[in-house]
Amino acid sequence: MVSSIKSYLKKDCESSPLAVYRIAYGLLMFLSILRFWSYGWIEKLYINPIFHFSYYGFEWIKPIGQLTYLIFIICAISSLLIAIGYKYQIAIITFFLSFTYIELMDKTTYLNHYYFISISSFLMIFLPASAKFSIDSYNKKISYSKIPKWTIDSIKLLIGLVYFFAGLAKINSDWLLKAMPLKIWLPLKYDIPIIGESLMHKDWFHYFMSWGGMIYDLSIPFLLLYKKTRLIGFLLVIFFHAFTKILFPIGMFPYIMIVGALIFFESNFHNKILTYLSRVINKIKSFFYNKKTEILTKKGPYGYKTPNLIYIIISVFFLLQILLPFRHILYPGELFWNEEGYRFSWRVMLMEKIGYTTFKVKNIDTGNSFYVENKEFLTPFQEKQMSFQPDFIIEYAHFLGKHYKELGNKNISIYADSYVALNGRRNRQFVDPKVNLLNEKRSLRHYSWIIPLNDEIKGF
Q: Where in the sequence is the domain holding 421, given as residue range(s)?
């Protein structure tokens, strides 16, 4: 086993796939940030709200007023530097830190593909993505034609894990046996030309989409991995993500996954892309600057200065990515109901959850009480997310407690009146109305004040 691992780590491969991935990744990230900015979401999601939901342990990360725009500017510039391969090491670290800071500013904006961008950018810190076709290699006059094979395989593995866990999560009774929540969502898409009226309300089509989505997610990493099925797999990737883009507002995720799938292709394919880009760049450069620069292409593989340290970091990274999706087994109760261990596990669009949660503030000394108007503190989007997620509810209750105590209400208690509907089920009481939430602590442990669903959803 040890000898096999050592032998694998010594293998090398063409560097062109990683160079193409770096260019595409940087450009996509730049476009994503421009898109986010152009829609006014920086102001709407981070500057206007007076309260922000935080991740446990990261409460100190908050928007910084108008300077929040500066974080986005830094993130955008670093993504462009990644694409052109200038000061790559600094650029990718800066992008990872700035993008992750943005995602940690408010838990309300959590999306699976945002999480993917954070962890993939962290992985890229340790990959020689600027070893070829970069300004760094141009300035150093050294380009590496070979890099360690594991560097490209690590990106393939990360993409494969995303699909595999997404497919595994779809093996549940609601998704496969009830076609939920697609049975709720698809009929709303009746206005789509051609297929809207003919398919979207058909029961068989809901099941076809449910089972098809599960099979697609579980099989696509293997279809992309093998040369004989790679083209078929890539065409399926394009079709699947294009179709889901039409059906659902999922932002840049389809483009990220389509571009990411390109790294599974042979180096000849990527060399053609780089050759074409090189011609375009040379034509532009010759217009302004005719002097040629000789670049030494090293045929030997790119070498790490501290390979053992890199191996440890990458190993721990992937161990965490494999273990995190299973952490829900540490919690009692129904995962879709409690959502304890739900995030960071590639559970993509598996449930339709609607909640209604109000808070009663009671003066313990006088017995007087009043209900909170959530709109005074939360945006509609924040209130929607808070209404059915326990960690949102407890954090908001503590915020309310602090707010009203600062107004002079020293001895108070706060109770939640909460009802939630999950995947077409009737509204059920979600939070024990007798529990004073100010006496409950935020933690990573199970919240005992959640009223159980008493309806098992079988599956992973």
A: 341-439
Task: Give the CA-trace dihedral at 20, 22, 25, 28, to 10 degrees.
Answer: -80
Which of 198-202, 206-210, 211-215, 351-355 has the weakest average pLDDT? 198-202
What's the chain's Rg over C-alpha atoms? 25
Question: How is residue 437 written in tokens?
Answer: 């939430």
pTM of the model: 0.94
- Name residues whose C-beta falls within 8 Å of residue 292's C-beta, 6 or more positions apart in sequence: none
Residues 273 and 131 in one domain: yes
Report the number of secondary-structure helices (H) and strands (E) in the chain: 19, 7
Helix-, strand-, coil-residue percentages of the chain, each rounded to 5:
60, 10, 30
175 and 272 fall within a common domain: no
The verdict on residue 279 lying in a domain is: yes
Region of 417 please: left (phi>0), alpha (psi -120 to 50) or beta. Answer: beta
**Would you call 440 exposed, middle or buried from its count of C-beta atoms within 10 A (0-12, 13-18, 19+)?**
middle
Residues in the chain: 460
- Report pLDDT digits (tens) over 443-453: 999 999 999 99
Residues 290 and 217 placed together within one structural domain of the fold: no
**Lookup result for tokens 């449930």:** 351
Would you say residue 332 lies in a domain? no
pLDDT at 295 over 80: no
Do 18 and 104 lie in a common domain? yes
Classify residue 309 as exposed, middle or buried by CB count within 10 Å of its CB (0-12, 13-18, 19+): exposed
